[in-house]
Automatic annotation (TrEMBL), chains A, B, C:
It is a multi-pass membrane protein. This is Trimeric intracellular cation channel type B. GO terms for molecular function: identical protein binding; potassium channel activity. Residues 290-301, 311-320 have a biased composition (Polar residues). Intracellular monovalent cation channel required for maintenance of rapid intracellular calcium release. Acts as a potassium counter-ion channel that functions in synchronization with calcium release from intracellular stores. Activated by increased cytosolic Ca(2+) levels. The lineage of its organism: Eukaryota, Metazoa, Chordata, Craniata, Vertebrata. Keywords: Endoplasmic reticulum, Ion channel, Ion transport, Membrane, Potassium, Potassium channel, Potassium transport, Transmembrane, Transmembrane helix, Transport. Belongs to the TMEM38 family. Signal peptide: none annotated. It comes from Zoarces viviparus (Viviparous eelpout).
Length: 320, 320, 320
């Protein structure tokens, strides 16, 4: 009947679908997530000043998807905390990554081969999370494709989507950037997964669940490996995105016609209202920054991250 | 029995109460809301850089009341998304307002006669929303007038009340202003409506529901038309507000006695702690800004909005 | 059986456990909370500019714990509003503290003996709140110690934990500080109470509820009195905290090794990316501030608070 059923891939997909995420894959997810937190600028200082804030941030990195989908479905936000084993595992990981004697755990995990394996395992958990979110939403809102996509996306990419508030826990506030304004690769791939699984669950996509799980998992794993090995951050969807964007959103551009005038208006305002602007803080200017300056700001903070990572690596080398 | 029942107005009020909001009035609400979003400073840039953030902001403008009241009543926040027809209509409106070829939809809707009709229709939906919120709260919390007012207000003016977080989606953060600190006209009129309907539902106001609906709708429609036609933004409650304020909140003013000293303290602090202030960001200064400077800041941003609107209008003229 | 049962303290503990918080202790809680709000910098201005925002902030100070625990357990956030008597009492208190003719209420309550009594009464309510939160969580999540601690903590110290968002109501935004990054004394003592009551409820701590209530209440009351009378803000746990910190979180410090490099990186970045930094606002720099500068900033704002309090006191003296 189904082409995939005739191939030996069918058995593989059944095997994958029966794979248990606990404990190894979950563990890999915690390690990679907390290492990603540690590599954010300023986190090492926070881990010394307030271990509690650092722990809370780590839990948001690990369980952000569960928290966000709980908020969206009006289920208790503390529910993830009631999963004692998960929280315990994540807390031990947090402790070892941040405070291990000699910094052994972080330095070992940061070695490319091990990090590659862990990252690939983390990618596998994504399939389970997205599918879990979609089926949960399907059981509550039978026909609503949008709700299924939203919950699947939230479960799979929650940590990224609540980034602004996770940063606030650490005393950092960057309102000028969020995952909706500028999606990162994991957020994009999760959105695509949520759309695919939602279509599959509502029978618009004629595939069996375990087959789609195999296809999606292989795609994410291959992509992640390619990106880590080549060090490229180019999205595999860049061409499609660009085509869709040009077709749908660039037909008529009042923006092009406006740009000159708006910028002029902004400049006028800046020069005339400098006193006021100083009072209301530079935040007030966020709405007026042009996309160019925004990108500049972001590349600046990326640079900072790179430096922080280099510093970490140097540190590891010294210890070794 | 009732004076209103003897008048021909009774039939009119029955007719109004049986009016269906879907699809025409809902549509008008979406158009006016999304046009209001488009006229915010910086939104056109966002609509080019990230259509997704722009769409999400539009949905918050259209369904903000439903989202806020869902949060307050611990009901699923995604519920508005499950109303597929509504979201579809709002999304089509969003697309046409922002990306229509030749910008036809926005330019036509921005013409005064059409805009007046649409705005009046949007005002009519307010009555339904406030009443919906009040009766929903009444069914859950029988005797609590405060809860009924809060939910009615949230349903009717939700978009305004969650403005800070809607702006955050677009990368804008203006902590120094919110609807509680400085209420806009729609927020005020909705609050009054919520109070009236809550009093009516708990029988403190001896009126029938459809009569109050007629009275409130006529009042909001007349007021909105007057404000749009005369271009005045003076609130019809200014006199009452001022009287209440003077009676209740200005009897004794420790503030007047304090102002000098507080300002002196602020100045001292600013000059001595400049280094620290620079580190913690200009936000830290928000607490110290005097009301005067706050107003200055706001008028600054209003000026920006005006300019953006002018720019839009110029743009439309060019096309026409 | 139990040592405490043989002592006359047993009767005392039973008497305390049967004490009703309503109305006197609740009233004391409202007065002390709203006075604490009034002594925040900038609040007097807000109370003149927008009584509504001031009232809303006061309610968050009074019912913050109930609101936060409602959010965490996915119960309606408006539920505290449905407690009409409580809200009415708190609102009357708010009005009297902020707008009483001659400022009599604030000036009287600010006198040390009365303030001491009120503060001690407020400390007593903490025991009831923490216990209420812990038992509520225990009834929903039988075995989860973490959830019980979280809800008990939220109920008892909610006002502090949601401080950032309470400030936002007043137009103040201080992302660089929160209760997780730098815990205040009330937050710490509540956390300890939540841990103790959670251990007691799950039978890990072999004590009866009313005995623990007595012990915890006496401890908080004595501590608060000592701190108010001596004017010291030294935590009674400083020694334990320091020991725990040194044992667990300072074993290996990649931070020490890093500090130089990170700071260098920060300086580099600041000098090279000044243009970008200006665009993204000083907030972007929050992540880069060293702990030292953060502390400096905070001591700056504390100084401001002191000055505001002095100003208030001066004002009271003038009136007297």
């Amino acid at each position: 009947m189904d082409l995939l059923e005739l191939l030996p891939l069918d058995e593989l997909s059944h095997g994958l679908a029966n794979l248990s995420m606990f404990p190894y894959f979950d563990m890999a997810h915690y390690i990679v997530s907390i290492m990603a937190l540690r590599e954010q600028p300023g986190v090492l200082e926070v881990s010394r000043v307030s271990p509690l804030a650092c722990w809370f941030s780590s839990m948001l990195f690990c369980f952000g998807g569960a928290v966000l989908s709980a908020i969206m479905l009006a289920e208790p936000v503390v529910a993830p905390l009631s999963n004692s084993t998960g929280v315990l595992l994540a807390s031990i990981t947090w402790y070892l990554v941040f405070y291990c004697p000699m910094d052994l755990v972080y330095c070992c995990s940061a070695l490319l081969p091990l990090r590659l394996v862990l990252s690939v395992m983390k990618e596998v958990t994504r399939t389970w999370k997205v599918l879990g979110g979609v089926t949960l939403a399907h059981s509550k809102y039978k026909d609503s494709l949008l709700v299924m996509i939203a919950i699947g996306w939230a479960k799979g990419a929650g940590g990224g989507l609540i980034r602004n508030f996770e940063q606030l826990v650490r005393g950092v506030w960057k309102p000028e950037t969020n995952e909706l304004l500028k999606m990162s690769y994991p957020t994009k791939i999760t959105l695509i997964g949520a759309v695919l699984f939602a279509l599959q669950q509502t029978r618009y996509l004629p595939l069996q669940t375990h087959h789609l799980m195999l296809i999606y998992t292989v795609f994410t794993v291959v992509n992640k490996s390619r990106m880590m090995l080549t060090g490229s951050s180019s999205s595999p969807f860049a061409a499609i995105e660009s085509a869709v964007y040009k077709t749908l959103f660039a037909g008529h551009s009042p923006y092009d016609a406006l740009t000159g005038e708006v910028q002029k208006a902004c400049v006028d305002q800046r020069t005339t209202a400098t006193a006021g602007a100083k009072e209301i803080g530079e935040n007030g200017a966020a709405g007026k920054t042009t996309p160019v300056s925004r990108v500049k700001g972001q590349s600046g903070s990326l640079k900072a991250k790179d430096k922080s990572e280099n510093a970490d690596t140097t540190n590891c080398k010294k210890i070794n």
